[in-house]
């Protein structure tokens, strides 16, 4: 995955038909503190951190000259972890 996110904002992707039982990846663009975070929603409410899949994702980011953070994230199609989606 590749995401170009405006500095000071975020973008997210989710795998699931609804917000219930959905794995999410959040790209948080915040200068040197920019990061990719994993979340999981079990109900129609604020999702919670999902560190179970942290080892499944590899990410990097760098600031661009136009005020964005460029994220690059890789993940196997199947992480082999219960409650994760096969993409």
Overview of this protein structure:
The chain has one domain. Helix content is 0%, strand content 46%. It has a four-stranded antiparallel sheet with strand order 2-3-4-5, with no helix packed on it. Strands 1-7-6 form a three-stranded antiparallel sheet, with no helix packed on it. A hairpin with a 4-residue loop joins strand 6 and strand 7. It is globular. The relative contact order is 0.27.
What are the main properties of this structure?
0% helix; single chain; 87 residues; four-stranded antiparallel sheet; 7 strands
List the helices and strands and how they pair.
Elements: E1 2-6, E2 10-15, E3 22-28, E4 35-41, E5 48-49, E6 58-63, E7 68-74
Antiparallel strand pairs: 1-7, 2-3, 3-4, 4-5, 6-7
């Amino acid at each position: 995955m590749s995401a170009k996110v405006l500095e000071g904002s975020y973008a997210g992707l989710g795998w699931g038909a609804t917000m219930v039982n959905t794995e999410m990846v959040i790209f948080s663009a915040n200068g040197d503190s920019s990061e990719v975070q994993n979340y999981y929603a079990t109900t129609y409410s604020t999702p919670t951190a999902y560190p179970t899949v942290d080892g499944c994702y590899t990410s990097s980011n760098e600031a661009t000259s136009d005020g964005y953070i460029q994220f690059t994230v890789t993940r196997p199609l199947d992480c082999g972890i219960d409650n994760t989606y096969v993409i």
